[in-house]
Amino acid sequence: MHSQNFEDITDQEWRERLTDQEYHVLREKGTQRAFSGKYTDYKQSGTYHCKGCHTALFSSNHKYDSGSGWPSFYDEISPGVIQENKDTSHGMIRIEIICATCKGHLGHVFKDGPKPTGLRYCVNSISLQFK
Hints:
Layout: H1 11-17, H2 20-28, E1 47-50, E2 56-59, E3 63-64, E4 72-73, E5 82-87, E6 94-99, E7 105-110, E8 120-123, E9 128-130
Antiparallel strand pairs: 1-2, 1-9, 3-4, 4-8, 5-6, 6-7, 7-8
């Protein structure tokens, strides 16, 4: 699926590929309620992929319990799979994280995570697919 140019996918095609809730988060920058996602307390070993394009984004080796109510990771699986954008919505200044391949909204990254990176990638479960 990576050979596809995701910039050419129309809004209607995204709506056909994703559930309404997945579309709202990935394409409209929505947010799941805290503690409502299926991967918040998930402990299996494996890889978390983008729900929109199946790109590998995070390893379970980098997942930790931040207590925030969303799956949290202290690093991306490999450099460049996550793109960062300044987000000034809701009266806050945050750093949005999106999939670098399909530009799907994942969540935000904060500088209050554990060592070695000090980062907390705070991700909507619905943006992810575990393999």
